[in-house]
Write a structure and sequence with these properties.
This protein has about 140 residues and is an alpha+beta fold. The chain has 3 helices and 6 strands. Strands 1, 2, 3, 4, 5 and 6 form a 6-stranded antiparallel sheet that branches. The protein starts with 5 loop residues before the first strand and ends with a strand.
Length: about 140
């Protein structure tokens, strides 16, 4: 495992598995989203607060590479780094590892932006300052 800005341990619940006994592919996006929200809270930005202010942080692209399936009862770790992609976009580089053997289960790049009250892309000042502090185009540590 490489170095990550944020990690979040989680567990697979029975109802997240499909008929094959593995986590359904769509469920991984829930894991990734939960980790992103927890990360933003950890660095002082509240997803819900932004929404209440009419600023919506949205996903514009999701790239997921499924590597090894998780099964019911597996404990796993969602890891992430965040990077500025352009003036109006940022990306979360996220990996999911099975906890017991650190086996890579999923590799993802989630690209997002923020939409203002008029529905136009505009990064909120606090997030923009956070990204600038870390440097454009570089991973946030």
């Amino acid at each position: 495992m490489q170095s990550y800005s944020f990690t979040l341990p989680m567990s697979v619940r029975d109802y997240e598995c499909d008929m094959q006994g593995i986590v359904n592919n769509s469920v991984y996006q829930n894991y990734l989203e939960h980790a992103r929200h927890e990360y933003l809270k950890a660095v002082g930005m509240d997803f819900k607060m932004y929404a209440q202010e009419g600023i919506n942080l949205v996903v514009v692209r999701a790239e997921l590479d499924y590597k090894y399936p998780l099964e019911s009862g597996d404990r796993f770790i969602v890891c992430l780094n965040m990077a500025r992609e352009s003036r109006l976009k940022f990306a979360f580089y996220q990996d999911i590892f099975r906890e017991k053997d650190k086996k890579l289960s999923l590799k993802a790049k989630i690209t997002g932006t923020a939409l203002n009250q008029q529905g136009r892309p505009k990064i909120p000042e606090q997030l923009d300052a956070f990204l600038q502090q870390r440097g454009t185009g570089t991973l946030i540590d």
